[in-house]
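Help needed: design a sequence for this.
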């Protein structure tokens, strides 16, 4: 069993593509559901997707079995990572913090997180994640 740290776009893909993670565990930042909702809201406002589809995806996110971390240690770790990387937005560092504290690997294709993960945490792409589940 592997513990995968995921970001909001990865959670959305898991739901949209109906990926079964089996006995593996998912962990994410405490704000993951809100971040996913923000991404979906932006997609509706830009006309990329229909609001009806979004509601189903939001229900899927709510039902996704994952552990969300928002404790003092994970917040402090995100703060340290953001400071070290000289980022303006500490929320971007949250998936990295969760991965360093509670996961075996980070699943993301976000180019900023991919670059930041190098030398900090093991990272796998979406394709590598799905391939590793089977």
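Sure. Designed sequence:
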């Amino acid at each position: 069993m592997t513990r995968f740290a995921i970001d909001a776009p990865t959670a959305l893909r898991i739901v949209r593509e109906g990926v079964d993670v089996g006995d593996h565990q998912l962990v994410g930042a405490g704000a993951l559901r809100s971040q996913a909702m923000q991404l979906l809201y932006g997609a509706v406002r830009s006309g990329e997707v229909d609001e009806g589809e979004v509601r189903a995806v939001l229900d899927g996110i709510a039902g996704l079995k994952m552990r969300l971390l928002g404790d003092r240690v994970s917040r402090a770790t995100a703060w340290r990572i953001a400071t070290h990387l000289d980022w303006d937005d500490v929320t971007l560092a949250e998936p990295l913090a969760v991965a360093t504290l509670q996961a075996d690997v980070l699943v993301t294709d976000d180019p900023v997180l991919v670059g930041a993960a190098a030398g900090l945490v093991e990272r796998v792409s979406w394709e590598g994640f799905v391939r590793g589940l089977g």
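The chain has one domain: 3-133.
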